[in-house]
Amino acid sequence: MSSIKKIDQLTERDGLPKHLCELLDKYPRDTWTNDTLNGNWVGFWLGRHSVFREICSSIKHAIHELLDRKISHQNFMQQYIQLMNMMLHNLESHHMVEDNYIFPKFYKKSEKFRYGLELLENDHHLIHQSIDVLVAEGNNLISSFNEKKHIDYKLIVGDYSKVNESYNKLLIAHLCDEEDLLIPLVSEYGEEYFGLGH
């Protein structure tokens, strides 16, 4: 894997670097056809992305419900643990499949966009580092609830909310960048060209 420029790191960039947007300029999001989006592989892959976006939204909603005292600490913990376990299990397996199976298929067939694929794989490492922080802070939050400490719950939940927002921002940006790189490639060449969709 070539060295990723600092300016291109997920934490630094806003969308894909310009030199990787050649096909995105040709196939912007509003022109993606149903034939492409509902392809055997693309449809499944985008479905996984939808799951991650929904989990992020659900955790954010639960945090706001807790801050607004619309749900109890116990109710929040049940929702949070279930959702976070779902996120961790599915995201790890999803990234493993991408790194070991999907990205190599695109890498072999799209030399011009290899740096983009390396960028996306590097994103995975940054996201998992962010997950480590997210989980540690989430565990601290749950411990505080379980120990029933005399602390400002609104303050610690608010602090956790900021950590969660930082993680969400990274993950959603990465999902968008993956789609902006790979969907135009499939639009241009088709799934079969990359050995996908079977």
CATH topology: Four Helix Bundle (Hemerythrin (Met), subunit A)
Task: Let me know the number of strands.
Answer: 0
Count of alpha/pi helices: 6
How would you spell out the order of helices and strands? HHHHHH
Percentage of helical residues? Answer: over 70%
Oligomer: single chain
Tell me about this structure:
- With 198 residues, this protein is mainly alpha-helical.
- It has one domain: Four Helix Bundle (Hemerythrin (Met), subunit A) (Up-down Bundle).
- 73% of the residues lie in helices and 0% in strands.
- The protein has six helices and no strands.
- The chain has helices at residues 22-26, 34-37, 40-67, 73-109, 114-147, 153-189.
- The radius of gyration is 19 Å and the shape is elongated.
Keywords summarizing the entry:
Four Helix Bundle (Hemerythrin (Met), subunit A), about 200 residues, mainly alpha, about 75% helix
Explain the layout of strands and helices.
Blueprint (H helix, E strand, L loop, with lengths): L21 H5 L7 H4 L2 H28 L5 H37 L4 H34 L5 H37 L9
Helix pairs in contact: 3-4, 3-6, 4-5, 5-6
Describe what is shown at a glance.
This protein is an all-alpha fold and 198 residues long.
